[in-house]
């Protein structure tokens, strides 16, 4: 019998193929909280496909999904919990038709078991089992990098307003990159293209990335140095464990 | 006999293959003007290869190349002038081993005849002849986009300090992206992934991109609204001609 991880890889790949096949279709675009917070019919369609796959195989599992109006609460007493972002980087999906991701994470009693991030247009599936992290079939490795020879992935608002000290931290590095998708930024982080990722995120934005990145030595914390709470938007960063104390000289809430 | 354009495409592709073959080699990295302005032995090697190719075929041609200590001046009296950036996005080349470009532009009596931008790791050659622009063999098209449904490619310093009014302009859009390479940003612009590109650039950073983009309706101006002078670093932007007057409500020097 296929495991949840094996099934989830197939489901996410299928959803990615669905998006690629329909990438030129007209979109129905709706504003959510503000003019630059958008959702399309495809966010909803991909979410429905993935939720339906999960519940077909595991009808007792719970799902925390971005596009649900009524969301379930993250709770360490839930035996089987999925966290889903059907299209991360919806603005990129709409404007660029590139640089967006499907993200799915799986927890047992509050402990992250595996995560999947599909960079749809580049056909890159980042994922992990209980020990190792991969991009497609290639095992990912932790690299030792120093701050002053590295780049950071950042949220534009936090960067320009020095929120959480992010601008100060950026001055210790070779610069910042802004991609517009947590999933694509986590992909860059996992491949060593950025050293850390700093943004103002919801649980579905960091769930999969934080589980995968942990396998190669990264930790995910809020700018106050706490574990993220998985129940609201928070300033969160993922960075190598060996650099956290150096980073926290600059990053504070 | 092959034309300069046909030859240049081969030379740039060859240089790109050389970089890809050597992407894992140890680098000799030198600081130029400051700690985050870097050059490698490969910038110099690629420049030498391209200069040698040009002068072998066209010994009378002149070349303005980024890594020359003594640079020739852009002058509309020069019959055959090449402008060369052997590796644009050197920091990305060093840190990411991705998101860097080779750029070559050709001018006759001060008029841009063609440009080439090779996104080395994605095997995308952006180029133009005297009429049309292409990505590899695919003809590029101008798209009508409005500011409020678009993204901008920006320089991090200009964005966060509102230099030239760039932060003000960004608030009229869906947001900004920071890539760290003019060449890769021009590629995104040519493919419609960003509407405009705004940065503090040297001639070799905008020469090829401005020539190619002109074929699909873009113009390149300084933040003061002048044509760039091709003899120093200037705040320059490339944007659709039909949007320049709207952009200039915000962009001023």
Automatic annotation (TrEMBL), chains A, B:
GO biological process: inositol metabolic process; signal transduction
Pfam family, one: Inositol_P
Keyword Ribosomal protein appears in the UniProt entry: no
Family matches, as InterPro entries: Inositol_monophosphatase-like
Keyword entries, A-Z: Hydrolase, Magnesium, Metal-binding
Domain of life: Bacteria
First-level EC class: hydrolase
Binding sites annotated in the UniProt record for Mg(2+): 66, 85, 87-88, 205
SUPFAM superfamilies given in the database record: Carbohydrate phosphatase
Entry's Gene Ontology molecular function annotations: inositol monophosphate 1-phosphatase activity; metal ion binding
Cofactor(s) this protein cannot do without: Mg(2+)
CDD domains noted in UniProt: IMPase_like (cd01637)
EC number(s) on file: 3.1.3.25
Protein name as annotated: Putative myo-inositol-1(Or 4)-monophosphatase
Gene: suhB
